[in-house]
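Batch 3, record 17
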Amino acid sequence: MKLFLGIDLGSTTTKAVLLDEGGAALGRGITNSRSNYHLAADIARDEALIAARFTLLDRALEAAGETGEEAVLFRKRLDARFRKEQRMSQLSSLRERALREAGEGGRFGSRAAAVVERLLLIFDDIATDWRRPHLAKAKSDFFRDQAASDFSRLAEQHATREAPFDGLMSVFDKTIIQVENERLDLGFERNIGPALASCLANESGARRERYEACVTDAASIPIEVAATIGTGYGRQTLPFAKEQIRSEILCHGLGAHAMYPRTATVLDIGGQDTKAIQVDGSGIVTSFQMNDRCAAGCGRYLGYIADEMNLGVHELGPLALESTRHVKINSTCTVFAGAELRDRLTMGQRREDILAGLHRAIILRAMALLARSGGVGDEFTFTGGVANNGAAVKALRQLVAENYGERTINISPESIYTGALGAALFARRSVETPQA
Amino acid sequence: MSQPAKAQKDRSMAQQKEMIAGHFHALSTAKESGRKVVYTFVPGNLTELMHAFDVLPVYPEINALQSGMRKRSGAFIAEAERLGHSEDVCTYVKCDIGMLKNGNIGPTGEKLPPPDLLLLSYTGCFTFMKWFELLKREYDCPVAMLHVPYQGDGRFSPGMRDYVVSQLRSEVIPKLEQITGKKLDEAKLQEALARSSIAEDDLVHVLEQAKHRPSPIDSYFGGVYYIGPMFTAFRGTQSAIEYYRMLREEIDERVKAGEGPVTPEGPMKNGEKYRLVVEGPPNWTSFQEFWKMFYDEGAVVVASSYTRVGGVYDTGFRHDANRPFETLADYCAGCYTNLDLPTRIGLLSKWVKDYDADGLLVNSVKSCNSFSAGQLLILREVEKRTGRPGGFIETDLVDPRYFSAANVKNRIESYLQMIEQKRHNPSAIVSEGPKAGALPVMP
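Prediction for the assembled complex:
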């Protein structure tokens, strides 16, 4: 079957969306952008291809009449096992590299053996933990984040005078980059077998056979990526020909329209860009404004604030939502906001209230761009990573209501894929009308 | 290298280069030759009157933009900021101050003489007054101020004209007489004005050739070279007449041959894909890079407001030797930045239509209030009147810190792709795409 691929290379994450010939989204993938856009694009695409196979599996199950509770449970389990297989193979690569890095002839000299011994303990513990059937919900989907969090916790626990915490972490820091920058074979074909086997271990008879047949069906459909369009911050460095590149503004406009066909205005707040886009009834961009000389008020602003407060970036929104008092943050400069934050903390203001003020400051910047682009029409679709932040959304709703009145505000949990979806739609269109 | 088009292009360019070199050489030897030097501004300049007195004009704005193109402005601006000028002050001013403090070496490497008079044509830009206030502190010389009323209600009334003429008679001419020690020779002024109108006809002809498809010129990036002699020291001279005649012939040749503009990398590789009208001055520090962002995408600027900054000739104005003082007043009042917003909107909309452009692109310069104030309003209104999409980018005149190449390129490309998208039938892009705010795929 022919598929159309859209890839959105953001400054923070790279997203991929695959559409089928009917324009339905078949798969999607996301990875952190690293400094290697090439690889990030490949990994996001691989993830989307895997997701596409799972969608095909769903279709096969449905066709086989396997839609009951049992089948749903099976799919859930299969998915979890599959992810686990992927993670475990990445973990084993990390382990190998770490042992080599710390081993004899390396930087630890006579202490090499002691460090290796500690590393073995750490990796064994992580592996045991990850093999558990019910893994605690991870804070991040990325291997890097999960591994880092577990490794540092265990390194603290296992560190000795011979193998100190800093030394252990330096091994991790060096090797995690290597693992991130290798394309492991994480494909559907390779990992589905073991995942299926472990899933069906207790299953028997006809059901088992039907499930296996569905998986075989899904795996055997030939897939061809008929066209690819790249977009996003990194698009200039992409391995794409010029005609395979679209501006992220057009992609966000079209993607938002595809998700919410009545969209008139789109706000996208990404890592280093804020875009205010007006679209017509067909998703065609009619006007846009972007932050220009300065990236204050973008997603990175939140990243910086999170670092300042020693928090994860995903913890900021929920904390800010607990605010009870209005704090006005004046600085729109990211670095100054950091200073203002510390200053206010020493003045005894609550962290939650300051954070709410910071979120409002970001949205105020966005409101100015929206005004310049032509205002906020109805409906209004908010996309980009910051759309997942409840406190930012709250501030936006309030300011839109104050300035423009009642508006339908659309925020999709999938909003991070808006640009990639638009790119995939352009890819599909490029095959239909090659000159477009 | 031996194509005729290229050779002809070079001919007028070479001629202009020679004219400029001659002018700066005359400036550097002004003391020896006994000629007086007058510093003045481009919008509303009184070049013919200066020729009548045989004084040499210096245009600090031109020095600043030349410094920008020669990558010297960053250091000059830093120098001015060290002297206490704010980051938000017009970067032309700071660049000029910095250059002055670094020996006042002109674009050809020769030293500029100090002024004998600061002729402050206070037209269209209200920073000019402060600028010469600063220069007055540096040079011990008289200032002649010509206050040209802003066309706030879209017209230049007889009373306003009389007001400007009376200042010419009572303020400007006496000061010029005072520094040169001679009376105004009105016949000489009239001769210069007559020469101006001849060259003006040819310049208008050249700019209007952009109505052809493909346009033989880029009316912004190429246009700044074409307006050079006219808006500075050469209007009213025989050499300007010759230059514009030569240019006119070259452009006519290009039209005949169906050729597009010549860029720094030769003819445009993929031809003309987009026709734009541009509002606002160009960025000078990354001029070539900025231009490349356009021609690489096949975008040609067919009309620009910047090429009218020293006079809007489109509406029929020509210097008139029969009304020497009134015509100077009309010229001063009619330069682009002295026009009110409705008039500017009217002109830009007319250019979009007359030159059959795909839309209006605004290059907004934060530190240039005379251009930038109201530009978003202009953009929206022109979009509404023409039905063609507008684009908005932000750079600076000569402060290299305010040219973010990646962002500017991104926005230009997005704008051009937006035009492209609008050209094609927009239906059917999302025929059966996913609906209801979600990607119906597996987690």
